[in-house]
Amino acid sequence: MADQARQMQIGEVAERTGLSLRTIRHYEDVGLVTPSARSKGGFRLYTEADVDRLMVVRRMKPLDFSLEEMRELLGIIDRITAADDAPAEDERQRLRERLDAYQKVADARCEKLRAQLMAAEDFAATLHRKLDEVG
User: What is the pTM of this model?
Assistant: First the structure.
């Protein structure tokens, strides 16, 4: 639990997530992540949970999820995992259905990307063959 309470400045979070400082600040501006605290000097301080949240956003980005979809998914995750105010069973079921819908969209988009990658690799191989032919 000590690691959960450890606070990191934005530079370390950027390094850990592979996101730029600007991108992290943007995600804060649009309400996707909020630093857990601020230092006395006003620096943003993040916890491991904040890093996990940023990684969810980072993983959604290449799948072309919109900021609104990211916001909705994070809200679903927040609500379904809430320990202090757990959702009633009917709400929990609705949240699971929404989460399942996001999973299906993510799976479909991954499959589309795999097909695009295969086509790109085939094209690159064709270029290699052509270069070898003209040697």
Answer: 0.82
Q: Where are the alpha helices (DSSP H) in 1-88?
A: 2-5, 10-17, 21-29, 48-60, 67-80
Q: What percent of the chain has pLDDT over 90?
A: 82
The neighbour count for residue 128, using CB atoms within 10 Å, is 10
Angle at the Cα of 119 (from 61 to 106), degrees rounded to 5?
30
d(CA 51, CA 109): 24
Identify which of 1, 4, 69, 63 has the alpha carbon closest to the alpha carbon of residue 30: 69
Q: Which two tokens stand for residue 17?
A: 């997530």
Identify residue 84 by its one-letter amino acid code: D
With tokens 């479909």, the residue in question is: 108
Nearest alpha carbon to residue 19 among 47, 45, 48, 58: 58
Length of the chain: 135
In Å, what is the CA distance from 125 to each residue of 51, 100, 119? 38, 37, 10
